[in-house]
Amino acid sequence: MAAYRIAMEALNNARRHARATQVQVRLRVAGSRLCLQIRDDGQGRRPDRPDGVGMHSMRERAEELGGAFVVTSTPGAGTLVAATLLTGTEETDGPDPHTAG
């Protein structure tokens, strides 16, 4: 649910603030990590502007799950929001033969 909320907030920010014409969403699972990236081609974030409630909320959601949250932005060149969340499960190649019935 945290990944969904982070994605929705980032997409909403791109729509409301970035003046983006394209937004790319990538989601990947690597072992016990879920990696989420939202990249837009908008106006970028102004470095002199403090983070709003949405940015704080996305960071808190990621960190509450032991993950990381990074925003990279260049004025005039878009923004990349990247969150890595720990899922609490390891990737497996199939059912555990010891628990199969």
In short:
With 101 residues, the chain is α+β, with helices and mostly antiparallel strands. 29% of the residues lie in helices and 30% in strands.
Describe this structure in words.
The protein has one domain (2-86): Heat Shock Protein 90. Helices cover 29% and strands 30% of the residues. It contains two helices and four strands, in the order αββαββ. It has a four-stranded antiparallel sheet with strand order 1-2-4-3. Helix 1 (2-18) packs antiparallel against helix 2. The model is unreliable at 92-101 (pLDDT under 50). It holds the Pfam family HATPase_c. GO terms for molecular function: kinase activity. This is Histidine kinase/HSP90-like ATPase domain-containing protein.
Key features of this structure:
single chain, 101 residues, 4-stranded antiparallel beta sheet, 4 strands, globular, disordered C terminus
